[in-house]
Amino acid sequence: CNSIYSILKASPGIFTPLECLGLWVGAICHDLDHRGFNNKFMIDIGSPLAAVYSTSTMENHHFAMGVNILQQEPNNLLENLNPDEYKQVLTNMKNCILATDLALFFPNKARLANIVKENVFDWEHPDHRMLAMALCMTGSDLNSSSKPWEVQFRTSKIVYAEFHE
To answer: Does residue 30 surpass a pLDDT of 90?
Structure first.
């Protein structure tokens, strides 16, 4: 959340208010109800979540949990949006939360590299804006290197154990 906040504060006017809202709420919700395991593990053990969400299992679950919480009366901070605005914020949230699945990062990175190589990136192009938001979210999710060494090392050990033990 802190990284997305910093990105949004450092780039006023780049993202629309609704995009900022989708990024911010998406950052808050991006790991809701995380089980501590990656998508492959959830599929391998036959988790019910993997049966419900066949791709980006945990990320789809995080998004669903976020929407569920946001629909509860005391948490409905999107209630004053009109239907089109609400749909846009949820679409941005989902895109950004799904972007935290590293299986999607590499195709997103390749798309951006091609766009930059061809010198055709355009902030007015909706797909380019969505790609930029997705990569901001991925980068924010992976920002452990900006944390104090003790926190970074502890996090690295947990991630290593998850993927290699």
So the answer is: yes
